[in-house]
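tool_call: predict_structure(chain=1)
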Amino acid sequence: MELKDSVAVVTGAGSGIGAALARRFAAEGAAVVVSDRDGAAAARVAAEIGATADVTDVTDEAAVAALVERTLAAHGRVDLFCSNAGVFSGGGVEVDTDTWQKVFAVNVLSHVYAARAALPSMLERGSGYLLNVASAAGLLTTPGDAPYTVTKHGAVALAEWLAVTYGDRGIKVSAVCPLGVATPLLLDPLESGSAAASVVAASGTVISPEDVAQTVVEGLADERFLILPHPEVGTYWAQKAADPDRWLAGLRKLIRKTAG
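tool_result:
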């Protein structure tokens, strides 16, 4: 995909990976809509890069549809919809049902709502790109956070389904699966002593959001389905597929080592 002169919507773009993506897309010449549930954060990023700020709760389907409609009204098309917002739960299967549902709404249903809203105009034009920011947890796992792991697997599965279903109709799809990234989503739990965050940090290099954005731009240019800011994730994924029992045993060993 050529970002220059494209129209890109980025959700969860008020901070972290989303903000880095918005900045980089703008630097590449895209007209960017910076969307976040935190209007002040969205406005700060948008002002910095000369973009449009938008306030959207990605768990509200009508709000996501309205975001797309506003973008179509202002720009005439959506070339790239980057569904980026995500949350941790910090717990296992014992986490209360309301938290499970909240994490599912942000990490899975937000991608569903984005696709429902963006696809009609993309299919009418015969072109468009859905970029879903998932996680290495969607290919592997996140010890200590069952809702996050399950929903990120769902996010990757949805992206696969979209690619299979619409790939012959001009729609490109990518799933971004980073490991440790220096954002509050990782750093805050790490500072509080979270076992899950410690294992993530021990599994590979903790990179910056800007590093993720660089890999994403390269992945979009190549139109790769899986965009892996941490190349080692591909190695771990292959090892998991080749011998799941050995991979699980190795991960349990890493957990014990990290806890010790």
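agent: The chain is about 55% helix and 10% strand. Proceeding to next step.
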